[in-house]
Amino acid sequence: MLRILTLLLVISGMLVGCTLMRPREHVSWNQAMAQKLAKYDGYSREELAPYFAEADLPYAPHELAFVILKRSKKFEIYARNNDHQHWRYIKTFPIYAASGGAGPKLHEGDDQVPEGVYHIVGLNPESRFDLSMHLNYPNKFDLKEAHH
User: Fold this and answer.
1) pLDDT tens across 69-95, in order?
2) How many whole angstroms separate alpha carbon 76 and alpha carbon 107?
3) pTM for this structure?
4) Contact 112, 30 (CB under 8 A)
5) Which residues contact 41 (CB under 8 A, 6 or more apart)?
6) Strand ranges for 5-147 from DSSP E
7) What tens digit of pLDDT does each residue of 121-139 get?
8) Sequence-distant (≥ 6) Cβ neighbours of residue 140 within 8 angstroms
9) Is the dihedral of CA 108, 111, 112, 118 positive or negative?
10) In angstroms, rounded to a whole number, what is the distance separating the alpha carbons of residues 15 and 76?
């Protein structure tokens, strides 16, 4: 999973969809995922490893955090190697396209990007985007707020 997360950094030029779909019958989920990851392996190492080295971290750190700032359209990456280490800034990428605008997601289909703290729980190798992330949205906080 760590390798998958490090390769996700290459998609930072855009926000991606958050739906999880099953691949077509003729390609297994694992095969589709392996194909997507292989596509970016060399590129991501070549392009991103220097930023991790500058932060004094190995290219495949233990943890990554993505901070997406909707209003300023920025995608920030932070990393650390263990729970006792402070998060280190890696790089900021511009976001060129996103659905919706500033403000929370209120209901399915409103084209808004969720606002909050989420975990990546899966990937969709067959998305219409190059790589899409499935988030744990709505999380417990979102559900609690929806009932108020």
Assistant:
1) 988 999 999 999 999 999 999 999 999
2) 26
3) 0.71
4) no
5) 7
6) 63-69, 74-80, 88-94, 120-124, 132-135
7) 887 777 777 777 888 999 9
8) none
9) positive
10) 12
